[in-house]
């Protein structure tokens, strides 16, 4: 099994580790210390060695922060994690506060005292966030001070896991679709045209994409941790731990890429003196901005130049995504068949559900990893959006309940992410009604046509209108970008209420995942990945329109659909989708599963 069900922390972490952190703070003369969730690479999923917030507090969510003073401490989480944080963190040690409402800055203004010194690790904070924190501390009469090495790392000491050293390997052209040299020339040219001499790249996904390489330093994503400097002439310097460099790599990178070690990076930044250097304040920490300013470089704050080209998948990547989704669809269909038959009477628990699904994906022979830990939420656990089953929380499915399964896979040719909600036993009329409303949102966002320049924010409401009409909604984004054998959450595009200025462009892959959650009862989510298609003229129209093509192929539980709530157009759309599922997945699965699939995809 790839997925595990143990808990990597427990609530005693605070009482065990905070005293050690406070001792280390004392040695540096600090009254307080900032502990963000983010690591040196602004990763969402962290290698164990970089999960400082988890080690200090016990909290394992994907976003958050803590501030540790000598005499008090607070932890900050967003609305997704209010239940989890109470479960994982010692509230005698940490006051629990809202990360979004006020957050760390508001806390510093009231919690810090005149004359205090609060330490921070400049490698872990974005320059903009740090500036706001400095202002807040100053309002309280305190000051922020960069501290190296991080006192928390010193306190962690020998117990800290070692830095990951997964081998970095070539990502062949049959999957990447464009030579690294062509990518570097293209991005370098754009840099030059904007008046820049170079860009510093620190996002692992950008480095993987630009050099056509993959690694395994971050769990569930084939990301190599490292840094790079790309010059306007297309040449580059790539900084990787030498133990990760596989024999084929130097030749794969070619003569225009100089392979160096992370220890060479500070000197390399000094070489950029008097050059105009692009750095992304959303991706690179304050440390880079300070190091470049110290070196006498002219820092240009601008988006990572690889972010947008990486998001717009080329024809080879889209073809790979289709193949990956056809393969994954067959594995998921075998799983859904099991849920619809054997599991209806055996009533498996969540861990058995996760294991079963993983076994079907493993059997494809092509699975490189899961793209994230499978969320299997039985009954009320389905209403916890970021739920992950563990031995302690594991729950058995029951007749008359819903089971929500959100999962994905990493294959060489593509990354998948799919959610299906299925009925165990006989669903209630309310469950069917709400499921159908969610389905209407998913269908609306799949069939929309839109002009060039439209952002994901402008489309978000389409996935919610059916819910809104009944006084319902869901509290998460509708869609996120997805990488090509890279991170399952990848910007810069998003479909969400939160403003996002990035226009959707052909080749971008996004998820379409509306949901509905009834706390303490059940959760519903339907998620397909879809990509933006090229502009096409509309019959009788005046302007060409972009649209979406759905990649994900697996049946949607017909027992949960109230057909009376669907319009004729929605019924046709659902039937056409199911016909495609049968056409692509049917020939791949065993005769008994195929027979079931014929019924599961029958016209509504
Ligand atoms: Mn998703």
| CATH architecture classification of the largest domain | Alpha-Beta Complex
Coarse morphology: globular
The CATH superfamily of the largest domain bears the name Creatinase/methionine aminopeptidase superfamily
Number of domains: 3
Percent helix range: 25-40%
| Oligomeric state of this protein | single chain
Main sheet makeup: 6 strands, mixed
Low-confidence stretches: none
**Proportion of strand residues:** 15-25%
Enumerate how many helices there are, as a single number.
21
What is the CATH level 1 assignment of the largest domain? Answer: Alpha Beta
Family: Belongs to the peptidase M24B family.
Pfam families: Creatinase_N, Creatinase_N_2, Peptidase_M24, Peptidase_M24_C
Domain Creatinase N-terminal: 21-149
InterPro entries: Creatin/AminoP/Spt16_N, Creatinase/aminopeptidase-like, Creatinase_N, Pept_M24, Pept_M24B, Peptidase_M24_C, X-Pro_aminopeptidase_P
């Amino acid at each position: 099994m790839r997925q595990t069900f143990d808990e990597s922390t427990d609530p005693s972490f605070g009482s065990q580790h905070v005293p050690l952190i406070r001792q280390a703070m004392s040695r540096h003369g600090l009254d307080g210390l900032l502990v963000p969730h983010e690591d040196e690479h602004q990763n969402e999923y962290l290698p164990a060695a970089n999960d400082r917030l988890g080690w200090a507090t016990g909290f394992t969510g994907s976003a958050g922060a803590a501030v540790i003073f000598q005499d008090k401490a607070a932890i900050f989480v967003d609305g997704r994690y209010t239940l989890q944080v109470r479960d994982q963190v010692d509230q005698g040690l940490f006051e629990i506060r809202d990360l979004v409402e006020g957050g760390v800055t508001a806390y510093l203004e009231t919690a810090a005292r005149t004359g205090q010194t609060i330490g921070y690790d400049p490698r872990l904070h974005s320059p903009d966030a740090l500036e706001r924190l400095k202002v807040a501390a100053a309002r309280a009469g305190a000051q922020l001070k960069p501290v190296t090495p991080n006192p928390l790392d010193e306190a962690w000491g020998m117990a800290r896991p070692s830095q990951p050293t997964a081998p970095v390997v070539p990502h062949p052209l049959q999957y990447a679709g464009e030579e690294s040299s062509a990518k570097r020339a293209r991005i370098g040219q754009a840099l030059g045209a904007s008046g820049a001499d170079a860009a510093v790249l620190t996002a692992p996904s950008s480095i993987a994409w630009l050099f056509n390489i993959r690694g395994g330093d971050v769990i569930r994503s084939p990301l190599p941790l490292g840094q790079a400097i790309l010059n306007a002439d297309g040449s580059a310097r790539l900084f990787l731990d030498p133990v990760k460099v596989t024999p084929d790599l130097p030749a794969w990178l070619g003569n225009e890429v100089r392979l160096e070690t992370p220890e060479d990076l500070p000197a390399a930044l000094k070489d950029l003196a008097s050059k105009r250097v692009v750095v992304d304040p959303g991706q690179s920490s304050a440390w880079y901005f300070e190091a470049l300013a110290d070196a006498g470089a002219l820092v240009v704050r601008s988006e990572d130049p690889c972010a947008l080209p990486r998001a717009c998948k080329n024809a080879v990547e889209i073809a790979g995504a289709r193949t990956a989704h056809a393969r994954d669809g067959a594995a998921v269909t075998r799983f859904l068949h099991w849920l619809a038959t054997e599991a209806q009477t055996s009533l498996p628990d969540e861990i058995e559900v996760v294991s079963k699904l993983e076994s079907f994906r493993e059997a494809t022979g092509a699975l490189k990893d899961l793209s994230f830990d499978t969320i299997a939420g039985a009954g009320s656990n389905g209403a916890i959006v970021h739920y992950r089953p563990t031995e302690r929380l594991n729950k058995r499915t029951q007749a008359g309940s819903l089971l929500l399964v959100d999962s994905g896979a990493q294959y060489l040719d593509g990354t998948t992410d799919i959610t299906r909600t299925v009925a165990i036993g006989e669903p209630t009329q309310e469950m069917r009604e709400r499921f159908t409303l969610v389905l209407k949102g998913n269908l609306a966002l799949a069939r929309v046509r839109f002009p060039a320049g439209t952002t994901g924010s402008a489309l978000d409401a389409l996935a919610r209108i059916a819910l809104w009409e009944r006084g319902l909604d869901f509290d998460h984004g509708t869609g996120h970008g997805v990488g090509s054998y890279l991170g399952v959450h990848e910007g810069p595009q998003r479909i969400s209420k939160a403003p996002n200025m990035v226009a959707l462009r052909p080749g971008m892959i996004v998820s379409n995942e509306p949901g509905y959650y009834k706390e303490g009862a059940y959760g519903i989510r339907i998620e397909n990945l879809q990509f933006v298609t090229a502009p096409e003229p509309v019959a009788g129209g005046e302007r060409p329109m972009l649209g979406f093509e759905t990649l994900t192929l697996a049946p949607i539980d017909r027992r949960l659909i109230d057909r009376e709530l669907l319009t004729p157009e929605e019924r046709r759309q659902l039937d056409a989708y199911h016909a495609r599922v049968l056409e692509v997945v049917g020939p791949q699965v065993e005769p008994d599963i195929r027979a079931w699939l014929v019924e599961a995809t029958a016209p509504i």
